[in-house]
Amino acid sequence: MHISQDILTELNDKSFNPSGMNSVVGLDGFVDKIVTPVDKRHGLKENFDPIETIDSLGTRISAAAGKSANIELFPRFEKLGGNGPIMANAHVSLGLNVRYLGALGHPSIDPVFKDFASQTNAISIADPGITTALEFKDGKLMFGNTSSLEEIDYARILEVAGEGAFIDMLAKAELVSIVNWTMIPKMTSILVEIVDKIMPNLPPIDTRNFFFDLTDPAKRSSQDLLEVLKVISRYQAYAEVTLGLNYNEALQVCETLGINGGDKNEESLCSISTEIRQKLEIACVVVHPTESAACATKDGAWWTEGPFTENPKITTGAGDHFNAGFTSARLCGFSPLTSLALATCTSGYYVRTAQSPSTSQVISLLKESQQNNS
Description:
The protein is an alpha/beta fold. It has a single domain (about 5-35, about 80-374), classed as UDP-N-acetylmuramoyl-L-alanine:D-glutamate ligase (3-Layer(aba) Sandwich), CATH 3.40.1190. It contains 13 helices and 14 strands. It has a 9-stranded mixed sheet, sandwiched between helices. Strands 2, 3, 4, 7 and 8 form a 5-stranded mixed sheet that branches.
């Protein structure tokens, strides 16, 4: 990972310390069951060869057509999941004051979220979904049960949180992150209600930022996607709006907006980010493949490579940690380029350790990556 001198200079001049800033995150919640598909078993417990790639699993499944197959999924562990909880957990580790609103269990909190709910003074409005995540060297497959998320709508939020408390929460937040549009069927209508009924009446603050993450919208229609993008654009009248996209999501948004997609190289990623931002007329668009990241604002476009590792300990949640790192860095006043570098290292630390980092651990990985590249 090459780090420019501009980034190192900015890190010396500014502090990556978002403590005291208020973050509100929602609206999903999942119990993640991390599993490994078994290729050949040689004994008990972990004495087996895993199916290492998605392509290999696909071949195994295709060969079973017209026959049958029995594929063992070896359980690794269970953890809190969902884009919102993982991003909020990362915000907590980075030092933000976080309130969470989402599907953590109702009327009682699911045990996997107990500590998280306490740390974030959480308001739970529905039972969590269930995700079974298969992780491979070349990606991951996530199988979700999302029926409980159908209960989440604007009326339910006000019923459980209280209208005054919900408005107060949004009014005090420097950053509001609303994620996992794809998995929450009524998310678009919730966003419309908030932008129509709440945003015009919030008291002005110096820094009000809204962050949106769509989360793999492939199963939603182009019409649905276009509708929510138009709603997201409306928030720019009341806040600085950032849309975060992984590479596949960026290509889906490009297709919906009539933009030519491109490769994962620097020029293409900067171009995609710029065109999406201009079409939506929002403050910032971020596109982050696994190996690098780019973003565009009204002042230009930037790109950086990340501290890529071929042997991650975990990949589920890597994008959410990237988002947490980027939004936290921007709150601290860092430039888009330095924010991208801090975001890739927030994600990079997480995939290496399966732990959310502190800001000092993020900076240490960034400097270590620079030294290894020297």
